[in-house]
């Protein structure tokens, strides 16, 4: 144990800090003089090293003091909290815990005095003793032979108690703390709830304040005398109580701890005192029992499997010693007890094993326990010994028990001291730690050690790192300067004849990236290069001077050459020339500098000259070098005078107003104004109803300068500063710029600027009105939705037209305008003159009045009147005079009627033409209006008409496919006479169901198509619906409907069943034949050469027989003598086998039969021009798949 304490102290945090401090101090003292940084040797003198060592030692002391202070505070807080009273809901439990804390407070106070404030309470291992009441737990501790350093202060009898432990006693030994718990905590028989709450509260307290290892082991004490005297039920009850307490220890404390089983009061076994009486002190301190091996000890299986073997070994030792003891004993009575002692011990084997089995038998529902061993002990020899053998004989033979004399206390303990000192306490480390807590401690400890090492090593390594870094800095700077010189020599020299900056970029980048270059390096000295050794300042000054020289020598001339090339290549682009010349003169130091303008110009040029992702870094490098060039005084370079003169002459010949106007509308103040967007004005549903035919998005709007706010708050201010602008930039045109500052020139120029603005302003809104259409209507649902939105309270059309009307009333300033421009040029002039007390502005005021024109009273109109007059039609359209609805309101109301008509059609299923009166009224209301309303009206009207027609067609088609098509296809598909080659016939019932009057096709046509079809024309034709749009059903469908009508009229002239009446008259018979007979559904027509003149015979079809036959006589073998066709359509099939020839009369035809080469001719007369036997519709009709 002492070695363990020494090791813990050796690896503690203060010790590690001391080791590190000693190592660093020795390193500085002995190796410090060898450290040189350049010519400096900071540790060469003893004084410098002494100060460094002192600094290290002082830092170490501070760290150690902080650690000790923190640990002491933590221990004190733990001790204070562990004895602090916590209220519970049970007064009994609260009192119990209060007693526990009172005793612990006394023990801690004395322990701290004895150890002078050390953290002894937490560092010693803790063992908890459990067992039933009277098991001898306290007696075993008191008589264990252990040293109790606090026994004099607290009193041994006060801690142990004569009548047993009331709740828990803390026994503080030199090696461990023993927690002696009350027996009732184990059995919990007196007051179960109170005992259980106190017990669990006690475990919670242990876990809270010793989280890593609440206990180092558990000692289970059980009295052999109790086991011997108790019945089986009581024994099992105590065993189960011990088992439960052990499981609660395992679960509540979260650690796996060793368990030591003590069978106490072995002295009450008959013969114990007599057998062991000769033992000396050292012999009595030895261990009597067995300890299981650590490896392979899985708990319950090991203790139960090895118990018999180990107990037998103990009995063997007793038997071996018993002969010697018998010889030594002269008293017969004592000799008998000595002789019987091994058998007495053997008699308790079974009850001991039963107890262990009940406690440690494995279960899949409980954790496995770590049982270390089983031991027999005796704390004091008091009480009456138990003769197990006599008890058994008395029960067997019914004889009385022989009394054994009471044991007299000898004050000696047996087999306890070494059990604690040599077995339990050395195994304090066998307990596992709580994984979560242990992991947290390991990380905290590792972090503290790492931090201490890092700080210590970092301080020692700082100078070395700084020295190496500065030496590398100098080496890198020298190498880069050499490389720059090589790259610089490769750049084409004076005179510079190219504008390609890429030629100079590598050399410039090399200088820029040099170490300590102020252009890229902060003024703050890098920490890794500091500590008095930094060489960057010396290097940086030289690098900065060289870099500035290179920019003026290689970069600036190429920028000027590039501008010359741009001006020569855009000699006809006046706006480009003006800005390029301005930048050129700025870089040539011949005009006021504007760094932002130069940067913007160059960045645009570089993005075009060196485009793409591959040149992103190149452009970034150019921008950096330009920033550095402009941030320092530049070298004055001679410019291309003839080119400057040429450009100035060209610019002076171009209208100045256009240049000034472009500058105004592109000024930062103008571009900062928010755009006027249809999406902002039209409302949330604008994208659902409007579209731009140009393909532009609705979100693309009009520049903010072309709004009423832009005009009054920005443009007028900018226009009033035209003179200042011309004067400010007169240097760009040289002497010619001064000529443009005359009053007449400024007046003309200002008026022209305003005219340009007014024209563009009006065109912007006219253009957007011409580029907005109603979204194409693709369905009736969409048409209803669009008209609903357009006629609603937030109609995008109303919002947009109203907003444009407001924006084009330029003569009226907006409510938020900062400048109020009253009516009349005089008032305008007075207001502006008050704002600017300059004579040149009077010229601009006159220009404003002249550009606006004259009002109705002859006075100059206010600024913006031109635009307002151009959109007077719109103002009139949206104006609400005296609260009355505007003309636009009336149109939107009619559009609401259109919506309601379309909605009614949709609710009706979409079929039918519907009422189109609202559409006509809507179109009429907008027919004479200016602006886009007429176009929008036509789009809504035509789209709605098409949609309603399409809806009707869709409904009709759905009904056709649901009501008629399935049966029509099934009844006619591949059947005669619709398919002349088909073998199967159309059933007469099906034929009638389809084609009869009020049949499926006839009824469908009457209910769905008749109102759209003109049946007076041949062929039938479609009528027009909804004022111009037909249903969109193909003419082919109409042809099939007409065929169905012809079949109806031909076959069903007399009713709902097909019926045809016709006449058959024989006309001629082959001379090689004697007679011929034609039979139609049981009706015969005969003829022979002797019959005389043939007479017509009336025939009705269909008949009951369903067969058609023509036979010729005489019948000749090997020759066809008849033709037969059966089925309801047999007569039609028989006609198909004959040759039917038309005659001059449309109701008559000639039928020629060729029967085996013999001819028979009949005349067929139908009595109607609708001849069913030659009706094309019958064989060409098809059921349309869709309409």
Automatic annotation (TrEMBL):
Residue ranges of domain Type VI secretion system IcmF C-terminal in the record: 1062-1168
Top-level taxon: Bacteria
Entry keyword annotation includes Transmembrane: yes
Membrane-crossing residue ranges in chain numbering: 7-31, 51-69, 446-464
Keyword Disulfide bond: no
Pfam families for the chain: IcmF-related, IcmF-related_N, IcmF_C, IcmF_helical
Domain Type VI secretion system component TssM1 helical residues, every copy: 953-1057
Keyword list, A-Z: Membrane, Transmembrane, Transmembrane helix
Chain ranges of the Type VI secretion system component TssM1 N-terminal domain: 193-451
Residues of the IcmF-related domain: 505-809
PANTHER family reported for this sequence: INNER MEMBRANE PROTEIN-RELATED, TYPE VI SECRETION SYSTEM COMPONENT TSSM1
NCBIfam families assigned to the protein according to its UniProt record, in alphabetical order: VI_IcmF
Protein name: Type VI secretion system membrane subunit TssM
Gene (UniProt): tssM
